[in-house]
Design goal:
The complex is a heterodimer.
Chain A lengths: L9 H8 L3 H15 L4 E11 L28 H13 L4 E6 L8 H14 L4 E5 L5 H9 L4 E3 L6 H4 L8 H13 L3 E3 L2 E3 L5 H12 L7 E6 L16 H14 L4 E4 L8 H9 L2 E6 L2 E2 L2 E2 L3 H11 L2 E2 L35 H19 L1
Parallel strand pairs in A: 1-2, 1-9, 1-12, 2-3, 3-4, 4-5, 6-7, 7-8, 8-9
Antiparallel strand pairs in A: 10-11
Chain B lengths: L1 H17 L2 E19 L14 E5 L3 E12 L2 E18 L2 E20 L3 E19 L4 E2 L5 E13 L2 E10 L6 E4 L2 E19 L1
Antiparallel strand pairs in B: 1-3, 1-11, 2-4, 3-4, 4-5, 5-6, 6-8, 7-10, 8-9, 9-11, 10-11
Classes of the chains: A alpha/beta, B mainly beta.
Chain lengths: 369, 205
């Protein structure tokens, strides 16, 4: 994106976020209409290709091995299953498939080779393919790009400051680096965050400033509302009001005018009217499917009903960018650098420690029963 | 497998020629194994209470069945054994778990000394040859390449009454039985060592 950039300060974004709500929605809607077709919303499908067993300690995540949650764990999906799921998603209006694996970072080997085949297979179905696989080196990004990947998702999650209160097993700077690696490989970038994790509105503004400092801007910014899952350190977090979501979508829209703002997790808790306001404020995508990785998601028929009421149509694939070509070189790793270089801050987050200890006690109890 | 037993037999028989006396028999061991696991990469140790996410729960008892020979030599005795051994343990990483079953042939070569006619003390190396391994996990894949051969140390005491011998023995792993462990897509560099206390009952033919 080569449009002129505005250097947003945290104060400016904060001020924007706190504008009278309807004024903010109006301004966002204007920016949205100048830069996007407001009648079109992309339907994306998020596939959890590998669930659970993650070594990280993200306070919001039910997939961390250390917390005791009720999720159904799954080993890496087969390419055939992914293809079948992608075809099903396509037939119900999805034009983008995002594949998520609960990994800390990508490791060379059979599993990664399998993911590369999944990318190629789904790309051949004329769908946009996005992956979220954790931290990524430049050569891994290159291989994904060669296999036909369109976008790489790596969320900032929250502001740099609040990040330290949520995750202790990896550093914010590694996230920025991964985004940079995806960018260098020619992938489009999808990076956003989760609101409702106990952060302040200033943190939300700070995250948007960090995103607005990426050059070029990220093509996609997913905005999630925390779904508090029992067993995670954030199980007792209160659900955020829909108004916070509307404000966040609208502010993102104004700060990043050309970016696709993706209404992501937490939609089950949102009313139709609330979602309509989000679309009005610039949300250009929703995630479809029974589950969003592990949290509940509205039924696709209900979503299509809402689209009908609002006069929205699902956006076609590759509307905002060219379909990537496949380069057979994706099969070859071009680096010998197999050493993990990602950081591990390892500071203590009390809520995470507490949830880990309580998970251990629960497991012991289950073992005895 | 057959070759190993045969070669043991040949070694035993040839030693027998120069030995003052030669006995052989069958024995059964009951062991209480304990595999220790150390995460060398420190992947599970984040400083956030996840330090001991990686753990192994061993089956309370394992069984070994096999043959032994005993040859007396210059006031000492040498006792090579060939024991089929089966271990079953549970590998855990937080919410992930898998059953690890390993069958192996253990070959202790004990050097011992008898005193007061019935008592014995002995010590020696134990060579383990892996015959089979299987890991069954519930959801996410767990795999570990257990080494084909490892060396340990055994030492203990025993008594002989008529044709029956009873031994109490300790085994200490001198090597890691596996250097890697892959759980749910995460690869750990591990040090896994087998230590156990065994009670053996033998019968000399």
């Amino acid at each position: 994106m080569t449009d002129k950039r505005k250097n947003w300060t945290k104060e400016e974004v904060f001020e924007l976020y706190n504008k009278p709500l309807l004024q903010l929605v109006f301004e966002a809607a204007k920016v949205h209409r100048e830069n996007h077709d407001p009648q079109e919303v992309q339907v994306s499908t998020l596939l959890s290709i590998k669930t659970g067993g993650c070594p990280e300690d993200c306070g919001y995540c039910p997939q961390a091995a250390r917390y005791h949650t009720d999720i159904e764990k799954n080993d890496l999906m087969s390419v055939q299953t992914v293809k079948a799921q992608a075809l099903r998603a396509k037939s119900s209006g999805s034009s983008r498939v995002c594949m998520g694996a609960a990994w800390r970072n990508v490791k060379e080997g059979a599993d990664f080779d399998q993911v590369l085949e999944m990318v190629r297979t789904v790309r051949d179905l004329d769908m946009e393919v996005c992956c979220t696989l954790g931290m990524l080196t430049q050569d891994q990004a290159r291989r994904l790009s060669d296999a036909g990947l369109y976008a790489y998702n790596h969320n900032l999650d929250t502001s740099e400051e609040h990040y330290k209160k949520v995750i202790s097993t990896r550093g914010y700077e590694d996230r920025i680096e991964t985004i940079g690696n995806a960018r260098k490989a020619g992938l489009t970038v999808c990076s956003g965050g989760i609101i409702g994790m106990g952060e302040t509105p200033e943190d939300r503004a700070a995250m948007l400033v960090t995103l607005s400092c990426l050059n070029p801007y990220p093509e996609s910014v997913p905005i999630n509302a925390l779904v508090a899952v029992e067993g995670t350190p954030m199980e007792d977090q209160e659900q955020i009001p829909i108004w916070d979501m509307v404000r966040m979508v609208a502010t993102t829209r104004i700060v990043l005018p050309k970016t696709t703002v993706r209404l992501s997790a937490g939609r089950t808790q949102m009313s139709d009217e609330g979602q309509a306001l989000c679309f009005m404020s610039g949300a250009g995508s929703i995630f479809a499917g029974d589950k969003l990785l592990t949290t509940p998601n509205p039924d696709i028929n209900k979503d299509m009903e809402l689209f009908n009421i609002l006069g929205l149509t699902p956006q076609k694939a590759y509307k905002k960018g060219d379909k990537p070509e496949v380069n057979e070189n994706y099969k070859n790793s071009c680096t010998n650098d197999k050493n993990e270089k990602w950081s591990r801050p390892a500071h203590t987050i009390e809520a995470n420690v507490k949830a880990t200890i309580s998970a251990k006690e629960k497991r012991k109890l289950n073992h005895k029963l | 497998m057959k070759k190993i037993i045969l070669s043991l037999w040949v070694v035993g028989s040839s030693m027998c020629l120069s030995a003052q006396s030669f006995d052989w028999g069958a024995k059964v061991n009951v062991g209480s194994p304990n595999v220790s696991v150390e995460d060398i990469t420190n992947l599970s140790n984040s400083g956030n209470g996840g330090g001991d996410l990686l753990e192994i729960n061993d089956a309370s008892l394992n069984w070994q069945l096999g043959l032994f020979a005993r040859l007396k030599l210059l006031g000492f005795y040498i006792q090579p054994e060939a024991m089929f051994s089966y271990t079953n343990s549970e590998l855990k990483y937080g919410n992930e778990s898998g059953d690890v079953k390993i069958t192996k042939l253990d070959i202790p070569v004990m050097i011992g000394k008898r005193f007061l006619r019935v008592f014995r003390v002995n010590a020696g190396p134990v060579f383990s040859i892996k015959l089979n391994q299987s890991i069954k996990s519930t959801a996410n894949e767990i795999s570990s390449n257990y080494k084909n051969t490892t060396v340990g140390l055994q030492y203990g005491i025993g008594i002989d009454v008529s044709k029956i011998s009873i031994d109490l023995r300790v085994e200490k792993g001198l090597q890691s039985i596996s250097n890697d462990l892959k759980i749910a897509g995460e690869t750990f560099a591990t040090d896994q060592r087998l230590n156990q206390v065994m009670l053996a009952l033998g019968y000399r033919f």
